[in-house]
Amino acid sequence: MRSWRKSISLILLLSDLAIITVVVFVTQVMWLGFGAEFRDDLPYWLISTLIALAWVWSLGLNDSRSHRILGSGWTEQLRVISASLRLFGVIAIIAYLAKADLARGFLLLSLPIGLMALLLSRAAWRGWLRHRRAAGAYAAKALLVGTTSSVTHLANELRASPNAGFTAIGVCLPTASLGDAGGYISARRERIPVVGDFDNIIAAMRDTGADTLVIASANEIPAAQLKRISWSLEAGHQHLVLSPGIMDVAGPRMHIRPVAGLPLIHVETPSFSHGQRFVKRSFDLLISGLSIVILSPLFLILSLIVRATSHGPAFFLQERVGRGGRHFRMVKFRSMVVDAEEQLEEVRNQQVGLGNEVMFKLRDDPRITKVGRVMRKFSLDELPQLFNVFAGSMSLVGPRPPLPREVEMYAAHVHRRFLMKPGITGPWQVGGRSTLSWEETVRLDLSYVENWSLANDLLILIKTVRVVLAPGDTAH
Description:
Strand order of the largest sheet: 5-6-4-3-7-8
Structural class: alpha/beta
Shape: flat
Number of strands: 16
Distance between the termini: 51 Å
Radius of gyration: 27 Å
Strand content: 15-25%
Number of helices: 16
Helix content: 40-55%
């Protein structure tokens, strides 16, 4: 029986082959005609065939179809982009060195069209895979091993992230903890059975049908026993995954350095070079500047609507805390009545709170105007923050800009979010907004700050568009 890993890889292989073949040959016909020849007795369709096969091969060589990255989004897409650019770079170099008169227009058309088609195809397959994984299919059957607290935490995280492709089907605990567990552990209202202790892990894998062993806490397992367990796994069919217990550290900051046979994980402390800040600032200036110009008619229309439908100015200025703890004035379209701040305490005592203990929100806030409620639903009230971005007090993507009264409640480690400018959107915007607990909000913001990359900013912006087009929570 073919495993789901091989089935997925085969599906992607056939999909890549079909897309690349169509793009390369259609581009050839469009640019050169059907019967074009590269040289005497060497038709262009043969060149196109070689390019298509090399393209499919390079995608596989770069592990873009590996089951380990399927469903991971940017990792998969970056590998597709990297493999494609490298291949066409090699083709260009070979053509130059061989002094081959390869049609440049043909290549210049094939690369962007094919790359776009591949990315769209992968996005469609990724959506299908996530849907199937949410139903419990196409996922590794994982046996979790560790202490009760470590496996419970890991099980909760895996349940919360079905896209990761792990389904916990059993747990092995230390012998001393078996009685306390009561036969199962609870993970997000689901029970995962305890199937053994550390002495019968391989038997537990066989009994449960697990194909992946996840060590959530290796401190209680002797190194010699862990080595024997790894040797006992069936090569190619059973997999070993070690969780280092380090939360929210991105791959580029983690490096494995073998020392005397021990795989030591080196985690770099977060730092932001002048080059990184320059790239982020340049991106902010470019996008905010273009957006302000393009959206200026919308700004005018919304301003007139706000002024015409309620008493007061079109814009609302509010003091927020930015990078380095410096205060700035954040601008938004006014979505509340003019004296909203004066009514806050009165309304707070009458309404049910949303959010969390630090970022307090109000459900069905009566201070919001009718037009303001519509603008908030689609985040239109936040568009003027583009001026904050252009001026330099905010960024397009970053931690949520807090109020000074919120900062007074911060624990010491939360101030780490001030290493970067606050953003119009961020991980909090696409991760749940007002439904998040304070701990989860902090975790998302600090993870973003400590693992910043331009690719992640682009991903958050794309996700923000999806959230805005399918609005839910309006408290912000």
